[in-house]
Write a structure and sequence with these properties.
By secondary structure, the chain is of the alpha+beta class. Helices cover about 35% and strands about 15% of the residues. Strands 1-2-3 form a three-stranded antiparallel sheet, covered by helices on one side. A hairpin with a 2-residue loop joins strand 2 and strand 3. About 5% of the residues are buried.
Length: about 55
């Protein structure tokens, strides 16, 4: 799986976990931004795209 796809999968996975537990989740669609999601109005950077060695 490509790194971008791993990152997107991780973001959606984390967002679903929080949404399922009644947290407010907002996506930030700017690739050059400092964060990926806002969870309960806190900016969160998700790191799930670590390359395999």
């Amino acid at each position: 799986m490509q790194i971008d796809k791993k990152g997107a999968f991780g973001e959606h996975f984390i967002a679903k976990i929080f949404k399922d537990n009644n947290f407010l989740v907002e996506y930030h669609d700017n690739k050059t931004g400092v964060y990926d999601l806002k969870i309960n109005n806190k900016k969160i950077e998700i790191k799930t795209a670590t390359p395999r060695y």
